[in-house]
Design brief:
There is one protein chain. By secondary structure, the protein is of the alpha/beta class. It has eleven helices and 13 strands. Among the domains are: 17-113, Beta Barrel (OB fold (Dihydrolipoamide Acetyltransferase, E2P)), CATH 2.40.50; 146-279, Succinyl-CoA synthetase domains (Rossmann fold); 362-405, no CATH class. 41% of the residues lie in helices and 21% in strands. The strands form three sheets. It has a five-stranded mixed β-barrel with strand order 1-2-3-5-4. The longest helix has 41 residues, at 296-336. The N and C termini lie far apart (186 Å). 18% of the residues are buried.
Length: 407
């Protein structure tokens, strides 16, 4: 026997008794307010597509299940095709359908399980880098219209490079393609592509760079979503095209590059289209100029061009002459204050002083017929009285000396 005691009805007030509607309303309020939107993992079963566009299914695991609905507006935004037995991740919120007292999961977003975690990481990193401004359009570089040398970072043995080169040749593009080999899938792929990016930028001969590969699953393409590679692509100094996967595939290098091409083949078509457009315009100009090269209009322009050329030549000649005159004047002024000029003046003054000193040199008197008279100890004799005191006199002429003794 159960020990549960029956409630005494006589103690209950009428306003304490809930109607079914009130009870369901209270349950709805509690569930919807207490359980926030969240991710739920499970297997699809009881899948049903309504003509309204809504999709109903159950989400189950080994021990339990819950009803779920994906309304038409959200279903149109999801590329995943639901199927029975598919393992999925559902982001949604709880909802109580009061008329039946049933609760269900209102799906807002669905991912295939296994790819779900990668997709979540993709969305998280995309939002983070976008908020940093890494994908801003004003940072994008223009592609050169006629690139003569193109670098392609990809697997040298993949179909992507073969298709790329084949399309360029078929469309008549003329130039050089340089392959910078790298793994494009696996744990080392992102690091290898970053290194090839560095080498390509240091090569200094490239006009344009392409990075990419063919299609695959999100796991296959994940290297192009790794943050270091995405940042390296955004910082690339060369114009760069991201050409990864198929048309429906998006990777983060697509947003970081200057241009996204849906496939490597689409990148080749884009490049060759720019080239062919420039060639077409040049040919059109040639055809337009050829029949009218002797027209009066062109002749008139030719005369004006010659006149402007002559006037420009005269103007430049006058300016050059004036510049030469100014240079000569400046040269003269500099020469006047030049240390070399002062040195020459000083040397001239010294030379004049030297001549004056030479003219006063006693030795020069001998050249005019005079002689020196010296006594003992080579003392010069200046008068007769001094000469009479000396026993021997030394007389110096211009061509030699003699001695005289006093008698």
């Amino acid at each position: 026997m159960s020990n549960l005691r029956k409630p005494k009805l006589k103690t209950m007030e009428s306003d304490q008794i809930l109607s079914v509607s009130d009870f369901n309303a209270r349950v709805k309020t509690i569930l919807e307010n207490e359980i926030p939107p969240c991710w739920v993992r499970g297997e699809v079963s009881n899948l049903r597509h309504q003509s309204s566009g809504h999709i109903y299914f159950s989400l189950k695991d080994a021990n339990s299940q819950i009803s779920a609905v994906l309304f038409k507006g959200y279903a149109a935004q999801i590329s995943l095709q639901l199927a029975e037995g598919m393992q999925i991740l559902v982001f949604g919120e709880i909802n109580v359908y009061e008329p039946r007292g049933q609760y269900q999961l209102i799906a807002r977003f669905i991912l295939e399980d296994g790819q779900g975690q990668l997709q979540l990481e993709f969305n998280r990193l995309k939002e983070k880098l976008a908020n940093e401004g890494l994908f801003d359009t004003d940072k994008k570089k223009s592609l050169p219209p006629i690139p003569r040398t193109i670098g392609f970072i990809t697997s040298p043995t993949g179909a992507a490079i073969r298709d790329f080169i084949s399309i360029l040749k078929r469309r008549g593009w003329q130039g050089t393609v340089i392959i910078f080999p790298s793994n494009v899938q696996g744990t080392s792929a992102a690091a290898e592509m970053i290194e090839q990016l560095r080498i390509a930028q240091e090569f200094n001969k490239l006009d344009l760079l392409v990075i990419g590969r063919g299609g695959g699953s999100i796991e296959d393409l994940w290297a192009f979503n790794e943050e270091p590679l995405v940042r390296a692509v955004a910082a690339c100094t060369l114009p760069i095209i991201s050409a990864v996967g198929h048309e429906i595939d998006f990777v983060l290098t697509d947003f970081a590059a200057d241009k996204r091409a849906e496939t490597p083949s689409a990148a080749a078509e884009l490049i060759s289209s720019l080239y062919l457009d420039c060639v077409s315009r040049v040919n059109h100009i040639k055809k337009t100029l050829h029949p009218s090269r002797f027209s009066p209009i062109l002749e008139n322009y030719a005369l004006k061009l010659d006149d402007k050329e002559n006037r420009l030549y005269q103007s430049l000649t006058q300016r050059l002459r004036g510049a030469k005159d100014m240079l000569k004047s400046a040269e003269n002024r500099l020469s006047a204050i030049s240390p070399a000029h002062s040195l020459r003046a000083h040397n001239k003054h010294v030379e004049q002083l030297h001549k004056r000193l030479e003219s006063c040199n006693p030795a020069n008197i001998l050249n005019r017929g005079y002689a020196w008279v010296q006594g003992k100890n080579k003392v010069f004799i200046e008068n007769k009285a001094s000469a009479q005191k000396e026993a021997v006199l030394t007389i110096t002429f211009k061509d030699g000396q003699i001695e005289a003794e006093r008698l």
